[in-house]
Design a protein that fits this description.
Two copies of one chain form a homodimer.
Chain A (H helix, E strand, L loop, with lengths): L2 E5 L6 H11 L5 E4 L6 H13 L7 E4 L2 H7 L3 E4 L6 H7 L4 E6 L2 H9 L4 E5 L14 H11 L4 E4 L7 H6 L4 E4 L1 H4 L4 H17 L2
Parallel strand pairs in A: 1-2, 1-8, 2-3, 3-4, 4-5, 5-6, 6-7, 7-8
Chain lengths: 204, 204
């Protein structure tokens, strides 16, 4: 069974984000607070509300703001090209689970060399979040997973029906955003992903 | 002798900021990297360049990004209303010097109660950075310094000629931005501030 990462949209109200997370968190391994326009204070408020809603601290991953993650004692951070490097973060905060978002093989290899625990790679399929940008596709995903030793989490337009192909390509997990946070029935959707993931990982 | 804080403008190139800082740092007690539009990675690059230029780590203060401050081992952070609270930062990183930027007595008192080491209060005089916003003036500054027990650093339109009045009002230091970083002769200007500060503090 691979990992299921849920990524916040950065466009919803705090209440909507917390409400949906509280519904679905038992089915997800990680919930990423990816709210680039929000201040450290606001991200802290989101963490407090998620904890109050019963989301375990170790499931919470904060995008970019390592300080908020450490101060609130959550499980991990997700770093991008504009963030502190995995190396510096791991040196100072070895207890944090550190992910790195990557778009190329070189970035993934660098993340691995710098001590990242995993990479999120994408986008794999067409997605409205990346309109006009050509998706990488599962073939490139497979090339990446063969050459990188840390777990690769696939992101971008992944529907439940894609899950099998993504895992067959060597991904150790999937990350989804709009299908959960913008979906009509987030709970039904997250269960569907988990069902597909369970069946897909049977094949290995 | 009070403290002299130099605050970056957030509008200059990294090279200009580093060059001017390298010229003037021996005359300043603290250099604040206040570059709100810049990423953690960029702020880290600025810190590295300042260190290479001979600015001591303990003189460097980073605005808002506690993570960058901790990872690069600089002396302090300057927090605003949208930042992590002084309390949370002090609890987790007691070795950091923590300043809080405030605009009212209530904010200053809260910062004191939350363990901030000092506040920066302003703006005191008319300044192009706060056009159309009425300055607080030295009378309000004096009222504040009487009621707050942690050091109050004054900011906003402070020219060398104002230094005496500001210190007479109980400020323990001044923070300046454009007169240094946009000045024709930053070195001459910083010396002028220090000269005024030396003479002003003789009077106590």
């Amino acid at each position: 069974m691979g990992e299921l990462h849920l990524i916040s949209t950065g466009k919803q109200s705090i209440d909507a984000l917390v409400h949906i997370s509280s519904l679905v968190h038992t089915y997800a391994h990680f919930i990423h607070i990816r709210e680039k326009h929000r201040s450290a204070k606001e991200i802290g408020i989101i963490v407090e509300k998620l904890l109050q809603a019963g989301v375990p601290a170790e499931k919470i991953v904060i995008n970019d703001r390592v300080d908020v993650a450490v101060v609130y004692g959550v499980g991990g951070v997700q770093l991008a090209h504009h963030s502190l490097s995995p190396k510096r973060v791991k040196e100072r905060f070895p207890f944090l689970r550190v992910g790195r978002s990557v778009h190329t093989f070189e970035e993934a290899k660098q993340a691995e060399n710098e001590g990242a625990d995993y990479v999120i790679f994408g986008h794999i399929y067409e997605t409205s979040c990346k309109e006009g940008v050509k998706p990488r596709g599962v073939t490139v995903l497979q090339q990446l997973t063969c050459r990188v030793h840390i777990p690769v989490i696939a992101i971008g337009g992944i529907q439940p029906a894609h899950v099998r192909d993504v895992f067959m390509a060597g991904a150790k997990g999937i990350a989804v955003m709009s299908t959960i946070f913008y979906g009509d029935d987030p709970l039904e959707m997250v269960r569907l992903y988990r069902k597909q993931m369970g069946e897909s990982t049977w094949t290995f």
